[in-house]
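Researcher: Please predict.
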Amino acid sequence: MSGPSGRLRQQRMVGIACALAATCLGIAYLTAAGAPASRSIVNGVAFLLGVVALVGIGGAMPQIGRHSGLVLLVTGLSLLVTALLGAAADGASRWIMIGPLSVQVSLVLVPFMAVTFARYPSLAGCLGIAVAALALALQPDRAMAGVLAFSMAVLAITRPSSLSASALMVAITAFLVSMMRPDVLPAIPYVDQILFTAFDVHILAGAAVWLGALLLLVPPILGWRGNEGLGHAYLVFGAVWLGCIAAAALGNYPTPVVGYGGSAILGYLLTFSFLPPSTGSANQHAPAATEDGAETNAEIHRSASWA
């Protein structure tokens, strides 16, 4: 497929394929581990909803790009509302309830926010990142606060600017605050620590979990290699999910996509809507026309059912 539109469709197909493979490997683990069938159904439905969101929101990208600062500010406020009014467990407030399901909002919104800010940096967007960082410190959510700080560090290194530096400082401060606050949530079966406990089920179950987790990093690697002008957006995207995997390995935090919970599956697929198409060998300083609309040089300058 040639041209920006074709490349964008191709990249999204790769992302959907990796997300599908990771989801299926996760369902295989859940089945082998004896998890209730409802757990696998939740993950499968989350994947379908994520694909619908990717396709639907992708069509609204021109409008979102023009108002990205306002979108990020509203999204950050949504995280803050969750921290103040959301469902709480053991002193942490990270979830909203949708019927019997609980959704970890940060796993859905933080990846989108990081990539959108990387692609469309603005003062309002930076303020939105700051509000999100405050929310993560208040929840507290060490994992996602660390993920936000790591992704902003990657952005500040790959696309240095006063805005990226400001976002990085705020994110690091929020992460340090979250580290000083107690976080005593126990490990949830089929959600937390499964990068290791899956091997207790069977060596193939452990291999499936690790393979599924690593598949999440394939699309950002390919996108970065194929995009000279906006490759930093793919690096930020990869940093987010690498950070989520690292957090799941280091503490009692959800294992993205392969573990039980639909929030990460939704967040992974949703964020693909905001990634630019590859530019091939296009000059890094040339404007990149995309399906989402023309971009100027300045634009490229827990018990938790859904974990």
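Model: DSSP finds 14 helices and five strands in the chain.
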